[in-house]
Amino acid sequence: RGLSARTRAIREWQEYEEALRKKDLAQALRLLTESIPSSIGGSGTPRWDRDLEVLDTCLNADDMRLVGSAYTFLKNRGLLSAFGKYRNIVLEGPREVTPQVLKSSTGLEVSKLSPKKWGLSGSSNLVLIALLAGMSILVNQGIDIRPNLVLILGLTMLDAVFLGGSCLAQISSYWPPYKRRILVHEAGHLIVAYLMGCPIRGVILDPFIAMQMGIKGQAGTQFWDENLQNELAEGRVSGTAFDRYCMVLFGGIAAEALVYGEAEGGENDENLFRSICLLLDPPLSTAQMSNQARWSVLQAYNLLKWHERAHGAAVKALENGGNLSSIVRRIEEIVS
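Given the sequence above, the corresponding C-alpha cells read:
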C-alpha cells in the first residue's frame, strides 16, 4: 500500500510538471489543491519550490480570478508571507500631499515625477542629439539623407498609429540604458503590487507581445485587485481599493525616480489613472486628481525605498530572463 501511494504521488507530480510545461494554470492548481500530498516534492526539488512554479502559468490564464486563487493557495500554504504585507499602508499617514511635502519627503520636484515625452529629457535626449549630430555630419559630407528621413518618419508614424509604437520600442529596447530603465520601471510595479497583495499575472517586456495582449506602451506588468474589480462591477469604488490600485499604478514612476532621480516612462500609467478617476462617483476634480497622484507616488516611493534590495533583485532577475516564480522567491527571501 505504501509503495502504491508513493507511485500515485509520483504520477501526480509528473502530471503537475506536464501542466507547468503546458502553462495550464487550472490543471496545475487543481493537482496542487486536490491530489498532491504536501510532504512530497517531485524531481528531488523542495516541495515549496515546485509549488511556487504554478505562478509561471499565470500569464497564459485568461481568468484573473484563477490567478488570484493561485496566490491565495500559496499564501495559505505559508509560502508567500510577504504578499500583502503592506496592504494596510493605504490607511496610514496624511492624505494631503502638496508639491512642497512631496519634495521634502523625496528631495524631488513634482516635475521630476512626471513622464517625459521622447526626446525631451534623459537618455532619449542624448539619442536625439546624437541622431541630429549624425545627420549634420552626413549632410556636410555631401550625403543627402532627407528623402530617407521622410520615409523613416512616415514609417514611424504608421508604427505609432497602427502598432502602438511597438516597432520603435523593440528597436529602442536594444539600447542598454533604455532597456534597464524599462526593467526598473516594471520591477517597481511588481514589487508594489506584491507587497500590497495584488496578484501579478506576469511581466511582459516584449513590445510586440505587449501589443498582442492589449497593453499600451513598450512593456507592462499585469496585476489584479479583486476588491476593485468587484466594486467597479457594482458601480462604486471605495477609497481603500482605489488607493491601493493607484499605488501600484504609480509604482513604475516611483521606481524610476528612486533609481534615476526622475521618471521618463509612465505616460500610459497616468492615462489609466485619469480614466479610473472619471469612473468614480462623483469624479475627482483636477485638484483632487493631482493630490491623489502625488499621494500615490509618495507612498509607492517610500515602499520601494524601504525595500530597495528586493526591487534591485527583481530588476536583476528580469534582466536575466527570470520567470515570475524565481522573482517571487527572491522577494520572499529578502523581505520575509
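Residues 2-76 form one domain. Try to locate this feature in the C-alpha cell string yourself.
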